[in-house]
Amino acid sequence: MAQIINEIYKRPYLSNLDPDVVKSTFEHDCEVQKQSH
């Protein structure tokens, strides 16, 4: 969970979103990063 919080601080626009949206966005980004490696 701390990782997601860190992402929010890195991306100010996410701080206004619902936590579930932030989490799903973060997880999606993780999937994209895995695929790109």
Automatic annotation (TrEMBL):
It comes from the Bacteria. This is Uncharacterized protein.
